[in-house]
């Protein structure tokens, strides 16, 4: 078996603009890891199934209006309400593949003009990912891909600002993957990087907290 009782799972986050392929790649990664016998689960933020998540969903669908700070805190609360479950699963040896996390929270809110440090503050103390995979795609290219839906942030001009904010957040520990390649090639690259990190976590790399 790939996991033994002492080894923890890895916290792996996929980030990128809307329509860059995160959601498909996340679920493919889960299937791949399961196929290798790893204990693995898929999470996504926002998690629209909770009470907080339903408020977020209504906002994204333009069914409600909220102050920029208020919605920011709701996105953050939506991560906090999953924090202890995530820690328990990681410690039990389950790897979590997470479709969006705090970086989306900070990038999207700061793209609206909310102060960057203010945006980070409520995220302090959440579990830090072991790996951030950034699916890199120009906003124009992402916009062409099957088009945007009707959700609040799915506009080219706004996505350009989000891309700039991601640039400010990204550090050398992020793995940038060119998301314009054929899906299978993107998938292969992600698989290799993820396997390396899962093994490092099994060897005892400690869990850490945001922002570090
Ligand atoms: P989704 O399309 O991946 O479900 O994400 C919904 C939108 O919410 C997407 O445009 C990104 C945005 N978002 C934030 O603004 N803050 C956050 O913390 C998260 C997780 C997503």
UniProtKB/TrEMBL annotation:
Q: Which pathway does the database say it acts in?
A: Pyrimidine metabolism; dTTP biosynthesis
Q: Give an example GO cellular component term for this record.
A: nucleus
Q: What is its EC number?
A: 2.7.4.9
| Gene Ontology MF terms in the entry | ATP binding; dTMP kinase activity; nucleoside diphosphate kinase activity
User: What residue stretches are annotated with the Thymidylate kinase-like domain?
Assistant: 14-189
Keyword Kinase tagged = yes
Q: Which GO terms describe its biological process?
A: dTDP biosynthetic process; dTTP biosynthetic process; dUDP biosynthetic process
Q: Enumerate the UniProt keywords alphabetically.
A: ATP-binding, Kinase, Nucleotide biosynthesis, Nucleotide-binding, Transferase
Class in the EC hierarchy, top level: transferase
Q: Which family does it belong to?
A: Belongs to the thymidylate kinase family.
What protein name is recorded for this chain? Answer: Thymidylate kinase
Lineage, opening ranks: Eukaryota, Viridiplantae, Streptophyta, Embryophyta, Tracheophyta
Q: Which residues of the full protein are shown?
A: 124 to 335 of 336
